[in-house]
Amino acid sequence: MQRSPLAPSTMPQPVPVAGVRYAVLEAGLRYRGRPDLLLIAFDDGTTVGGVFTRSTTAGHPVLWCRRILTGGSARAVIVNAGNANVFRGREGDEAVAKEARAVAGALGCAPESVFVASTGVIGQRLPVDEICARVPDLVAGLASEGLSEAASAIMTTDTFAKWAVAKATIDGREVTIAGIAKGSGMVAPDMATMLAFLVTDANLAAPVVQSLVASGADRSFNAITVDGDTSTSDSVLLFATGRAAHPAIDDPADSRLDAFRAALDDVMTELALMVVRDGEGASKLVTIRVSGAVDDGSARRIGLAIGNSPLVKTAIAGEDANWGRIIMAIGKAREPIENDALAISFGGHTVARDGGAVPDLDEEPVAAHLRGSEISIDVRVGRGSGDATVWTCDLTHGYIDINADYRS
Amino acid sequence: MQRSPLAPSTMPQPVPVAGVRYAVLEAGLRYRGRPDLLLIAFDDGTTVGGVFTRSTTAGHPVLWCRRILTGGSARAVIVNAGNANVFRGREGDEAVAKEARAVAGALGCAPESVFVASTGVIGQRLPVDEICARVPDLVAGLASEGLSEAASAIMTTDTFAKWAVAKATIDGREVTIAGIAKGSGMVAPDMATMLAFLVTDANLAAPVVQSLVASGADRSFNAITVDGDTSTSDSVLLFATGRAAHPAIDDPADSRLDAFRAALDDVMTELALMVVRDGEGASKLVTIRVSGAVDDGSARRIGLAIGNSPLVKTAIAGEDANWGRIIMAIGKAREPIENDALAISFGGHTVARDGGAVPDLDEEPVAAHLRGSEISIDVRVGRGSGDATVWTCDLTHGYIDINADYRS
Q1: Is B193 annotated as catalytic?
Q2: Which residues, given as ranges, of chain A have pLDDT below 50?
Q3: pTM of the model
Q4: Residue A156 and residue A294 share a domain
Q5: Of A207, A242, A275, which residue is a domain's last?
Q6: pLDDT tens digits for B210-263?
Q7: Which helix (H) or strand (E) holds A162?
Q8: Phi, psi (5° rounding) for residue B332?
Q9: Same structural domain for residues B38 and B163?
Q10: B277, B304, B339 — which closes off a domain?
């Protein structure tokens, strides 16, 4: 698979995070000649928070993670690519428990502190014994370096590995954040990415971790869309090892978290945007800003209606400033708007305002903007002060090529 | 534009409907060398009912029709193709009123009995004076033949003209039903087709007409989807001239309407299916039957989640029995289901049941079914007795070709 034309030209230098170790290997579950199995191990005392797909056909790993998340502590997460372990009934649940027991046995911890994620084809039997047989090798290979290899091991139709890092301070002490993600198909709220794992050495009580990951996901992974479809396996997990030197934080509203929260949100947004940049067949990254809605939620729903519209996305692919389709998509959202105050801009060039086309518009600057690979659409709906930003990509022949022949 | 491969091989013989006359002509609004303006005139005493897009950016003709529909009577409908007259502020409203006044003047009726519809590009000024100048020619050309020409005149990206006819009896007397529709892009509930006009000589009070068109649309135009987008202009109108010999019916629950309602529903479903068969780029017609839902509404929402899923639609285009994507789409609908009772069939061949894949499945009959042009997907969700049928088409390169370069 050719690397997405929207892939970042440079990637950040991976940094180790105290208390976090990685190992990958080739299990040959579906792919050949590349790692497809990942183990991340955490020091004792690691707290965890997570958000998951709201699908009613959620995969067996998601069901397991939701259940053990109530414990609030984690020692490992094991992830395979190529088989999603979804829709396998009791056998699927048992496979997850078996994986967790195998890892727990090798690490000397409780199975309920081992998180599990799977991505790939739905409905096929997970070769769980083959996976469990490789757990000792994984554990033997654990090392504090390996963020980019971890990012590579969880890819499916992704064309580039996605990771991000950041530093922040809590109460004057430096903490590190690192994260990996995979996306590509079935990317839409909620959740927007299939899998993302974030790690930090911050010392945070589990409810703090949960609060941070949930609010961060809303502004990042839940604000992107590739095709409006929603995976059965979407999971975002944040692990905090507590190895940093600052005092423990146990209140999500503690103001000492402000810089950390901002840095974490940046990492999550960066990963989410990489997912859009790797949207199947994407040739353009589209940033949709909606303002003037009755509230932020309404603005987000309008933005997603635009970002999910096949007619808007094909127009962008065709570099056509067809703002009529944006009017259509706004209307389809059925949110409160003021038609006579609607305004639409491409790349800062207003094409419609006060409920009508801009007269005698010079179309050349708009056309020039649309020929680029990063498109911005600003929409004002004239009803209030709610705003939101949503990211999507265009809809091209590449999407059809990839998805009309993925399984077979 | 090449005729859709799914177009019907034969079309019914158009029949006249007492009290209905048609005229078309080339106004040159957008298309050249084909009629793009249609007038249908009705005898005095004609009643009307209609349903419209629920978009908040509904076109100016829709706003006009909604308002005058309360009067319940109609003398004409004027329709143009090529310009949707949407998002033009006061100018757009005035254009519609001007059209209605022009037709009313020529026919000698009230403007409030003249319905108006427009389809085409959004946001451009409707050349209303050019249209009004042609109204005398239209009126002069009115004739009781002309159903198929009427169907042709309202096409935009449609590749074939869509009409249907039926006979039924009310209280022992024969009545006739005829209808035309156009669709193609932006086809999704609600409404599913951009424009449909149905005429009958039945003698029905306006509330009866409204009840019949609303319930019929729910089972037809609102049960089809091409791309999940919703037009600003969708309108379905039913006109009843009252020229048939049966006694007037003024109660929608009157059992003498049963045969008529069934025939009308058939005509609407036939037209709706033609719209799907002409879905942009469609190469396969997909019938999705959902049973076992908690109620019919839930079944319909599950069916539409499947029918709107780009991943399902591309799999069908690729002739891939990727039922995992159907599991995904079911989950995305967030309707009550019983995972362990889920079953999925293609063309009657069960591929998944009791919450898992069918073991040792013979894939050849499934593959043979998927190579055909009419695909059926049956889904049982194991929670109740609600069922629904939804129609869609596959998602192909043709859709991208058409929509990445429509306006320019």
Answers
A1: yes
A2: 186-193, 406-408
A3: 0.83
A4: no
A5: A275
A6: 999 999 998 898 888 766 666 788 899 999 999 999 999 999 999 999 999 999
A7: strand A162-170
A8: -65, -25
A9: yes
A10: B277
pLDDT at B227: 61
- Work out the minimum CA distance from B82 to partner chain A, whole angstroms: 13
> Can you give the pLDDT at residue A55?
86
Give which of B76, B52, B338, B324 is closest to B193, Cα–Cα. Answer: B52
Helix locations, B113-248, DSSP H:
128-140, 147-153, 206-219
> What residue numbers bound the domain in which A343 lies?
285-403
Report yes or no on A8 lying in a domain.
Answer: no
Within a domain: residue A408? no
Q: How many CB atoms lie within 10 A of CB A86?
A: 30
Q: What's the token pair of residue B234?
A: 């969708």
In this structure, how many other beta carbons lie within 10 angstroms of the beta carbon of residue B16?
18
CA A134 to centroid of chain Cα atoms: 27
CB B15 within 8 A of CB B147: yes
Number of domain units in chain A:
2
CA distances from B226 to A169, A210, B162 (A): 51, 40, 16
Question: For the domain that residue B50 is a member of, what is the CATH number?
Answer: 3.60.70.12
> Is pLDDT above 70 for B291?
yes
- Note whether A60 and A126 are same-domain residues: yes
Residues A290 and A324 in one domain: yes
A160 plus A79 within the same structural domain: yes
pLDDT of residue A78: 98
A30, A121, A226, A229: best mutation site toward chain B, by most B Cβ within 10 Å?
A: A229
Of the candidates B253, B184, B249, B158, the residue with the CA atom closest to the CA atom of residue B215: B253
Structural contact between residues A288 and A280, judged by C-beta atoms closer than 8 angstroms: no
Residues A234 and A202 grouped into a single domain: yes
* Domain annotation covers residue B15: no
B403 contacts on A by Cβ (under 8 Å): 310-311, 314-315, 318
Helix (H) or strand (E) holding B365: helix B363-371
Q: Are residues B107 and B204 in the same domain?
A: yes
Q: What is the dihedral of CA B138, B139, B143, B148, to 10 degrees?
A: 30
- A172 contacts A209 by C-beta, under 8 angstroms: no
Q: pLDDT tens digit string along A358-395?
A: 989 999 999 999 999 999 999 999 999 999 999 999 88
Q: Same domain for A215 and A263?
A: yes
Distance from C-alpha of B289 to C-alpha of A237, rounded to nearest angstrom: 37
> Is B328's CB within 8 Å of A186's CB?
yes
Closest chain B C-alpha to A303 CA, distance in angstroms? 14
Residue A156, chain B, CB below 8 Å: the answer is no
Q: Read off the pLDDT of residues B95-126 as tens digits, 9 standing for 90 and up.
A: 999 999 999 999 999 999 999 999 988 888 99
| Inside any domain, residue B13 | no
Domain of residue A334, CATH code: 3.10.20.340
Task: Give backbone dihedrals phi and psi of B236, rounded to 5 degrees, phi first.
Answer: -125, 120
Task: Locate B111 and state its tokens.
Answer: 């403007």
